[in-house]
Specification:
The protein has one domain (about 1-215, about 300-395). About 25% of the residues lie in helices and about 30% in strands. It is built from nine helices and 20 strands. The strands form four sheets. Strands 3, 4, 5, 6, 7, 8, 9, 10, 11, 12, 13, 14, 15 and 16 form a 14-stranded antiparallel beta sheet that branches. It has a two-stranded parallel sheet with strand order 1-2. The radius of gyration is 22 Å and the shape is globular. InterPro entries: OSBP_sf (IPR037239), Oxysterol-bd (IPR000648), Oxysterol-bd_CS (IPR018494).
């Protein structure tokens, strides 16, 4: 084991030395770039073997925690359980190292318009399903629907979209606008979730690590709000990845019902409003359920792991020339397709989502603090289209399918062969 670890570290250092000059050139271009950094092309050696479309899966890698609030009769305790599920989604999404301790490449692949990711989790919580789709390219936006219809808890669904915006101010900062709503069918209850900003540490040393900062909120339609304040390690004190979360009744912010404090990358304590310790949670010990996807050869050409397979293979073998070549093939094909659509007066039809004027649930649950609104920022609004989904399922049941592109028995729909 020790030999493997030292070998990995050596390889990391060799890669860092090899690309150090290009890295500093990239940082220089970032510092002088005007506009949204998500549109800036990153050097091949910085790319992670994962598309942003797959990031929606981080919401459900602990399905039992996702559905746990649906089994709790107390609205106050449901607010706590929703918070604990949310905290479980942060560790692996923002970690600087993977499960094997290797440093992760932090620049995910930018999805193309229409890119999709379909998956499911099967465990003691039943079957939890995911549909994720890149619904916009300028600005970039990823929409998703996650649901579990197990009769034992009456049904849970999580729906939302994320519109990232990156900019440079001393370091790289990432804002994530959009909406995320967890709905519990049994109680007709909604929980509106905002996302914290991210900034990137370690740009000069090449030890890149994301940190969460600022404040995010979770507000329920049952009258409870959670405020989560994030902080990072300072020059003299503090720990990285720290947070303090307070659950309180709407209109009574100063009287905490629960206070959770610790590190979202490690562990945290749960105390009641009187400061009595109720629990200590080690996030690293939580069992992750792997997402199941169809084999690449059975996927539709728009599915992310099939579309990016040659790029990912090149990234994993550190073949930066192949990375650039394969990535350019996809990007050039997309540019050509957009030109064809423009010439024909057409627009790309989204498969599972539809843009709408407003979202009344988000509007009613958005948290307003110091003149700012959290969870209902002004941007495009995308909703899962049940009609589109039903038509796909009906086509599947009618036998309109291909053995090459058949989908899960779980009901995640068949997609035709048209690109």
């Amino acid at each position: 084991m020790s030999f493997t670890v030292s070998s990995t570290r050596c390889d990391e250092k060799q890669v860092e030395q090899q690309h150090k000059s290009a890295w500093f050139q990239f940082i220089k271009s970032v510092a002088t770039f005007k506009g949204d950094l998500t549109s800036l092309t990153a050097p091949p050696f910085l790319l992670a073997p994962q598309s942003i479309v797959e990031y929606s899966a981080y919401w459900a890698e602990h399905p039992s925690l996702l559905i746990a609030p649906a089994a709790e009769p107390s609205a106050e305790k449901r607010a706590l359980l929703v918070l604990q599920w949310f905290l479980s989604t942060l560790r692996h999404q923002h970690a600087s190292r993977d499960a094997d301790g290797r440093r992760k490449k932090m620049k995910p692949l930018n999805p193309f318009l229409g890119e999709i990711f379909l998956g499911r989790w099967v465990d003691g919580a039943g079957t939890t399903q995911l549909i994720s789709e890149q619904v916009s390219h300028h600005p970039p936006a990823t929409a998703y629907r996650i649901w579990n219809d197990d009769d034992a808890h009456g049904g849970v669904r999580l729906e939302g979209y994320v519109v990232p915006r990156a900019y440079f101010s001393s370091t790289i900062n990432i804002e994530r606008r959009g909406r995320n709503v967890l709905h519990l069918d049994r109680y007709g209850e909604d929980h509106c979730i905002s996302m914290p900003p991210v900034h990137v540490d370690g740009l000069v040393t090449l030890q890149i690590a994301p940190e969460l900062s600022g404040t995010s909120y979770i507000r329920s339609s049952s009258g409870f709000t959670t405020r989560i304040q994030y902080s990072c390690k300072g020059w003299l004190r503090g720990k990285s990845n720290s947070f303090v979360a307070t659950v309180y009744r709407d209109g009574n912010e100063k009287e905490a019902l629960y206070v959770l404090e610790g590190q979202w990358s490690d562990s945290y304590t749960v105390k009641n409003g009187k400061g009595v310790l109720l629990d200590t949670v080690n996030l690293g010990s939580l069992q992750r359920t792997p997402v199941q996807v169809a084999p690449v050869e059975r996927q539709h050409p728009l599915e992310t792991r099939r579309a990016w397979q040659h790029v990912v293979n090149a990234i994993n073998t550190n073949d930066i020339f192949a990375v650039g070549h394969e990535k350019s093939k996809i990007e050039n094909a997309q540019r050509a397709l957009r030109k064809e659509e423009k010439a024909a007066g057409q627009t790309w039809e989204r498969r599972y989502f539809t843009e709408v004027e407003e979202d009344p649930v988000m509007g009613s649950l958005a948290v307003k603090t110091n003149g700012a609104t959290h969870g209902n920022e002004k941007c495009m609004v995308w909703k899962f289209d049940d009609g589109k989904y039903r038509r796909i399922i009906e086509g599947q049941r009618s036998g309109i399918k291909s053995p090459t592109h058949s989908r899960f028995d779980s009901g995640v729909g068949f997609l035709d062969d048209e690109v």
